[in-house]
Amino acid sequence: MLHIGCHLSSSKGFAAMGRQALELGADEYLTKPCRKERLLARISNVLKRYEGRPNLLEGRGFLLDRQTYTLYLQNRSVVLPQNQGKLLEEISAQELHERCADRLDIAVDDREKYAALLAKHFPEESWRVLPEGTIQIRGFRREPEAYSRLAMEHGLCILGLERKSASLEDYYMNLKNGGKESC
Predict the structure, then answer these.
(1) 3 state SS of 174
(2) Beta strand pairing status for 28-32 and 7-11?
């Protein structure tokens, strides 16, 4: 994930706007006219600030600053309350990747046979059989058609195929609301 610094500039009479921009997550606020050297120095400082910081938890689609509990997500940033920031920090990046990976739910007429086919033909895939018998593939690496083709080529009937997208935001809101489910 790449953090893109946000610099805002305006004419001199807008100090209140600059304060508001910084509160909303801008990294810098400069008034115009601004010397080129000053702008380049500020950009350099922002890049140094984010480069190789051990306090940043980086994941697919998000960045969490562990010192300020600022969550950067989908071109937005929000400062989390300390308890929520600590909760999110305690969840490892790997766990977030696993919980928030897109998934494919496939229902077939013979799940044992299909599970054996998945293990043989797609051994690198992470999948599990859900209690209702549906096979769930997390973070799938192929197009959904590849999984349905595997079933049909081996005489299996597909009863259902559903692609589900997940996000860190879904997972976070679920946790915040007291849930313990995946995204």
Answers:
(1) helix
(2) parallel
**Structure-token pair, residue 152:** 């049909």
- Compute the distance between CA of residue 151 and CA of residue 163 in angstroms, rounded to an integer: 16
Burial class (CB in 10 A: 0-12, 13-18, 19+), 104: buried
Task: Dihedral sign for Cα 109, 112, 117, 118, please.
Answer: positive
The answer to whether the predicted template modeling score (pTM) of the entire model surpasses 0.70 is no
Two tokens, residue 23: 């509160």
Residue of 73, 67, 130 whose CA lies nearest to 104? 130
| Residue-range domains of the chain with CATH | 1-51 (no CATH), 55-100+166-183 (no CATH), 102-165 (3.30.70)
Nearest to 64 by CA among 53, 150, 167, 32: 53
- How big is the chain by its Cα radius of gyration, in Å? 23
10-residue averages of pLDDT along the chain (183 residues):
50 67 72 79 73 67 81 81 81 62 89 94 90 88 91 94 76 62 53
